[in-house]
Amino acid sequence: MRQKLYSVIIAGGRGTRFWPLSRSRKPKQLLKLFGPKTLLDETADRVLSLGGSDRTLIVTVAEQLNAVRKELSALPRKNFLAEPEGKNTAPCIGLAALEVIGRDPDAVMIILPADHWVSDVPAFRRTLKAAAELAARHDRLVTIGIQPAYPETGYGYIVKGKPVADAETDAYHVKKFKEKPNAKMAAQLLRQGSLWNAGIFAWKASTLLALMERYQPAIHKSLEKIADAAGGKSLATPTPKLGSVIAREYKKMPSISIDHAILEPAGSEGRVLTVPGQFGWSDVGSWAAVHQMSPRDADGNAATGNWLGIDTKECLIHAPDRLVVLLGMRDAFIVDTPDALLVGDLKRSQEVRDLVDELNKRGQRSYTIDESTSRR
C-alpha cells in the first residue's frame, strides 16, 4: 500500500475559534496549544510514515501558503497546493484528488484536517492503514468513526449499518449521517452504537472524482478545466496561465463541505463504509476543549505563562507576556496577546467565532488578521 498511499492534510482554517491567539493569517493549525509543536506539525508527524514525505500533500489557501510552507519546511515545495480562496472542503479535496491522480491514477488518498488532537498515534496509524486497504479493495469511500465517550451535540454522527462481510478489520456499511443532533437525539445515537464523524477519510482519487461527477457536476466541470489547463503538470507549481484558470474556476464552484457534497448522497446509495477508531481523538473545537485536554492543577486550572489565581477554579489561562491575576474566578478562559485580551465563560467558548464576525462588522479587522501585522 505504501507506494500508492497519499496523505492529504487540509490546512486552510480561518482562525476564528481561537481568537485572539489565532488570526486569519495565523489560524488554529499554526498554534502550539499542547506543546512545542503546532497542530499542523503534529498532524504531519502522525502520517509521514504512511507514505513518506514525497506523498504527504498539504492544501491551504493562498494567504497562508508561506506560513504553512515555513512550518513544514522538510516537505518538498511541490507538495503544497494553494487554493485562491476558501470554498469549504469539497473543492479543496477535489483539487487534491487531481494532483494525486496526476501522480498515480490508482492511488488511495487519506484526507485529514490539520488541526486535530490524537493521543495514541500507533493506533491512529493502524486505523488509517485499515481504512486505506478497505478503500482500495472495495472501491468505496471510507470514513473514520470515533467511539463516542458522551452524547456530544457539536459533532456529526455516523449511523452504522451491517458489518462489511469480507473486511479484514472491524468495518461497517454506513446507513446514514446525522449532523449535530440535539441532546436527546445524541443520547439515542449513543445507545444505538453510532460513531462520531471525525472528518478523516480514505478513498481512491479516481473514485472520488467519479462520484464528484455524479453528485456535484458543477465542481467536477471546473476541476476538468483545471486539469486540462495543467496538461499533466503539477498544480503545486502553476504557471501564471494555470493560476488564472484555477482562480476563475474556483469562483464558479459552490462553497460546500465534502460531507454534504459527496458522502451523504453516496451513503444513501451504499457507497460509504466506516472503520471505528479508538485512538484518543478531539477536533479541538474551542478553548473549552483545550482546557479539558491540558494538564490542570488541583483546582482544575490549566495555564500557560505568568499568572496568579486566588480562589480561582476550573479556568484556562494563556498569558505568555505579562502577569495575569485572577480573583474568585470560575469556569473562565483568559487569553492575553500583545494587542487584545479576551475573557469569557468556558461554557460559551464556541461563540468566539461570533466575536470575530462582530469585530469585522465594526471595522476592527486589524485585530482579526494577524497580531504581527495588526495595529500598525
Mean pLDDT level:
93
User: What would CATH call the class of the largest domain?
Assistant: Alpha Beta
Distance between the termini: 51 Å
> What is the CATH architecture annotation of the largest domain?
Alpha-Beta Complex
**Quaternary organisation:** single chain
Largest beta-sheet details? 5 strands, mixed, barrel
Q: Quick one: overall form? A: globular
Summarize the helix and strand pattern as letters: EHEHEHEEHEEEHEHHHHEEHEEEEHH
Short description:
The chain has twelve helices and 15 strands. By secondary structure, the protein is α/β, with parallel strands linked by helices. The chain folds into two domains: 2-282, Alpha-Beta Complex (Spore Coat Polysaccharide Biosynthesis Protein SpsA, Chain A); 287-369, no CATH class.
Which properties best describe this structure?
alpha/beta; 2 domains; globular; disordered C terminus
Overview of this structure, please?
By secondary structure, the protein is an alpha/beta fold. The protein has 2 domains: 2-282, Spore Coat Polysaccharide Biosynthesis Protein SpsA, Chain A (Alpha-Beta Complex); 287-369, no CATH class. 35% of the residues lie in helices and 25% in strands. It contains 12 helices and 15 strands. The chain has helices at residues 39-51, 65-71, 89-103, 121-138, 183-191, 205-215, 217-230, 240-252, 258-268, 287-293, 352-361, 366-369, and strands at 5-10, 56-61, 80-83, 108-113, 117-118, 141-146, 157-163, 172-178, 195-204, 272-277, 281-282, 302-310, 316-327, 332-336, 341-345. The protein has a 5-stranded mixed β-barrel, surrounded by 4 helices. Strands 12-13-14-15 form a 4-stranded mixed sheet. α3 (89-103) crosses α9 (258-268) and α6 packs across α7 (217-230). The longest helix is centred in the middle third of the chain and has 18 residues, at 121-138. It is globular, with a radius of gyration of 21 Å. The termini are far apart. Residues 371-376 have low confidence and may be disordered.
